[in-house]
Amino acid sequence: MSQKMDVRISRSKQLIIQAGLKLFLQNADATLVDIAKHANVGRATVYRHFESKEILQKAIAFYCLERFDSVNKDVDRQAKDHLDALRLILKNTMPLFAEFSFLSKMEQVLIDDADFQARSKQQNDEMRELISLVIKHKKISDNFSVSWVFHLFEGLLWVGYQAIHSGEYSPESASNLAYATFLNGVGASS
């Protein structure tokens, strides 16, 4: 297969995933035909890539996890220290409301999917490791367990996403407020 054909196939698959993400958020009962129309591709193209709605939803879930990874891929290089890495993760991740919402809606569907659970666990373990380093280096109080700080961080992301979605805050201001709240809640002087 030519490289040009590979690019076209990859592009159409990406359009279908992005259309599916948007439509499933609007309507959980959206069909593959609806998604084909929204992606501006033929029905046959959708069915060639995704045999069923469930397979497409799983692909979208993995796409969402990959988006979280891709926006944070340079955090290690950009951060001044481990605590600054948490700030950057908030900053980079806060604009991903659609991805977060999709994963939240699909949580029950994906709970039995071993591949998805393994990938999600890997992301969570990486985050817990970073939090552990922040505590170890006394950047936040060691009065809190890694698990507590991890769930607090996830909660602040959720609050930020809701504030952005309601139009109350921009992603940048929501991430700044989430980080300030984080520091005030578990800062080293707490």
Provide a descriptive summary of the structure in words.
This protein has 190 residues and is mainly α. It is built from ten helices and no strands. It has helices at residues 3-26, 32-39, 43-49, 53-71, 75-78, 82-93, 97-110, 114-136, 146-165, 171-186. α1 crosses α4 (53-71). The longest helix has 24 residues, at 3-26. The radius of gyration is 19 Å and the shape is elongated.
Show the helix and strand layout:
Layout lengths: L2 H24 L5 H8 L3 H7 L3 H19 L3 H4 L3 H12 L3 H14 L3 H23 L9 H20 L5 H16 L4
Quick description:
This protein is mainly alpha-helical. It has helices spanning 3-26, 32-39, 43-49, 53-71, 75-78, 82-93, 97-110, 114-136, 146-165, 171-186. It is built from ten helices and no strands.
